[in-house]
Design goal:
mainly alpha, 3 helices
């Protein structure tokens, strides 16, 4: 089995395979979908960041004293 990767847009529930790959694929394939993360309906950016915080290398939060000194 070989792996083929491409990006596409789902339109009307159909995934279009690029023409350049069609001849290389057999009749039977295994499909694994990886989707881009997007907020759920009714969830705002703050809720999303609280559940999935961004990881920034070298970042450390201010202490309580540092916060009140500003």
């Amino acid at each position: 089995m070989q792996a083929v990767e491409f990006q596409t847009v789902i339109k009307d529930g159909t995934i279009k395979i690029p023409e350049t790959l069609r001849d290389d694929l057999g009749e039977r394939v295994r499909v694994i979908l990886l989707t881009e993360d997007r907020p759920r309906a009714g969830e705002n950016l703050i809720d999303q960041l609280l559940t999935q915080p961004l990881r920034v290398p070298g970042f450390f939060p201010l202490t309580r004293e540092e916060t009140h000194a500003r």
